[in-house]
């Protein structure tokens, strides 16, 4: 809503920015920040895990993980619809892939190129 009030932003630009900002925030909070914001009974075992790795006792395909995987897809489809599937807004697709790939079960606990390993 805030981006819609900026006069020189068109609807496709607003939808693309909304999609990219959402996916960037989701990536930072779910896949880069490690540890927990509160004291846990695990005695520091989750200190080196991201929130996505800690979620649902490391079980895959739970309802909360499915929701957090489907919500960027729905936002991507809405952004693609409002941009009229224009190739100039390829940033939507790149943003979607950058948030969905770390959620795959095959990449659970994997840190590419040693980034965010410690």
TrEMBL record:
Subcellular localization is given as: Membrane
Question: What biological processes does GO assign it?
Answer: ceramide metabolic process; intracellular sphingolipid homeostasis; regulation of ceramide biosynthetic process; sphingolipid biosynthetic process
The record ties this protein, via InterPro entries, to: ORMDL (IPR007203)
Q: Which domain of life is it from?
A: Eukaryota
Give the record's membrane topology.
Multi-pass membrane protein
In terms of one coarse class, where is the protein primarily found? membrane
Question: Quaternary state and partners of this protein?
Answer: Ceramide-sensitive subunit of the serine palmitoyltransferase (SPT) complex, which is also composed of SPTLC1, SPTLC2/3 and SPTSSA/B.
Spell out the family assignment given in the record's similarity comment: Belongs to the ORM family.
Q: What does this protein do?
A: Plays an essential role in the homeostatic regulation of sphingolipid de novo biosynthesis by modulating the activity of the serine palmitoyltransferase (SPT) in response to ceramide levels. When complexed to SPT, the binding of ceramides to its N-terminus stabilizes a conformation that block SPT substrate entry, hence preventing SPT catalytic activity. Through this mechanism, maintains ceramide levels at sufficient concentrations for the production of complex sphingolipids, but which prevents the accumulation of ceramides to levels that trigger apoptosis.
- Taking the record's annotation, the residue ranges forming a coiled coil are none
Q: Which keywords are on file for this protein?
A: Membrane, Transmembrane, Transmembrane helix
Species name for this entry?
Answer: Canis lupus familiaris
Task: Spell out the protein name for this chain.
Answer: ORM1-like protein 2
| GO CC annotation | endoplasmic reticulum membrane; serine palmitoyltransferase complex
């Amino acid at each position: 809503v805030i981006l819609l009030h900026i006069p020189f932003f068109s609807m496709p630009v607003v939808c693309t920015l909304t999609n990219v900002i959402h996916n960037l925030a989701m990536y930072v909070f779910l896949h880069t920040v490690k540890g927990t914001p509160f004291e846990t009974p695990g005695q520091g075992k989750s200190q080196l895990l991201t929130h996505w790795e800690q979620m649902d006792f490391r079980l895959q395909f739970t309802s909360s993980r499915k929701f957090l995987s489907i919500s960027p897809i729905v936002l991507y489809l809405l952004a693609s619809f409002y941009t009229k599937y224009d190739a100039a807004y390829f940033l939507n697709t790149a943003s979607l892939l950058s948030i969905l790939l770390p959620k795959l079960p095959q990449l659970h606990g994997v840190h590419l190129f040693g980034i965010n390993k410690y």
